[in-house]
Amino acid sequence: MSDAIEFADDNRAFAQTQQFQDIKNAAHEHLLSRIEELGAEFGRWTRGAIQQFVDLEMDSFARLRRIPINESELRQIADALTKELAGFGPIEDLLNDPLVEDILINGYNDVYVSRHGVLQHEPVRFADNQHLLRIVRRILAPIGRRLDESNPMVDARLPDGGRLNVVIEPLAVDGPVVSIRKFRKDPLKPADLLALGSFNEEIYALLDAAVKARCSILVSGGTSSGKTSLLNALASFIPNAERVVTIEDTAELSLAHPHVVRMEARQGGYEGTGEVTIRDLIRNSLRMRPDRIIVGEVRGAEVLEMMQAMNTGHEGSMGTIHANSPRECLYRLEMLAGFAGFQGSEASLRRQIASAIDFIVQIGRLSSGRRRILSITEVTGVSDAVISTQELYRHEAYIAPDGEEKDRWVALGIQPHSPKLQRFRELARGAGSAVPDGAGVGGGGFFGRGRNK
Fold first, then answer.
1. CA separation for the pair 53, 35 (Å, rounded)
2. What is the model's pLDDT at position 351?
3. Considering the entire predicted model, what is its pTM?
4. Bacterial type II secretion system protein E domain: which residues (predicted)?
């Protein structure tokens, strides 16, 4: 076992050497000249055929040039060249790794990845910035997006559902900056998040009841806190008979629901024409007979249309927003509405927000990388020109006797105020501290003390 680990470490070490890059670059030039001789025939080859071609050419190349490398190093270079010709070069393995959530490239020789919410430096590098740009343009080619000096920033959705953001010179000073956000092929369900410890059984029960009772919910949190994953999971509680319209700037949601209409905003053309905003899509969605509207991220003028939809027959709609706390979430809604040109008074805006939003679910990424629901706050109305809220659950981390950090959620003993949850309150009262089976809320106590996890 230790021999295998040493062998893998040696391989990784060789891949970081200048010798590896020099041999690979020279071999790449040799392969390109051979491909040029083959012409159009090469374009019809499968990946397996390309792998065989590279292996044969590398054996010949190393023998004729008397390159001083062993068989293992030769195979390593051949594998890298196959990825170069048929895939995405140095980052192909990262793109295929299901544990990798984000790939962050700061120039050709500085790559970080996020696994389980924790950023780590990755021993991967490109030959130079031109090599990096070549791979990026290969990723962009099927999408038809342009990346050059006249258009030095690109934000695009990848064919597999991921998201790519690229900034190049002259805006990026130290070389191309590439950010790739990957998404799971099988989105997490509420039971998965429960098993991962993102919340406990009582919160599961409340969220299930709130979604089914058509409560409007905003998921609030910071970057990479798990907002989209939680929103995906919440949507699985929506009854199958309802029609759901999702609206996003870059399509990321993948709802486990049989009747979903997905819409994505469009950036303007090179002359600034043809732009279709999230605000335009929300307006149009109202003519599409939606039961619920889900906005991937609320961050602009669309906040007015979203609140109007929630207040005019589209209860149960949901969305995410960048904010550090439930109160900050409300402040941000006010600010965005002001920027959007809201014409009424401050008091009328707050009444509209309070009547539109029922719950704010605050989610965060802890220092350990764990993603947890930090609080569930209900919006109860307006009092003295201030939006009133009550916190139903609060997350607390504690150190167990064995020294391990664990989670618990403290139930603050307050019943949800919303009349939409009247049946849920009655069931909870009738069952004491536990929600009875058949309530459609997943079981677990509601008004008891928070459980440890």
1. 10
2. 94
3. 0.80
4. 85-365
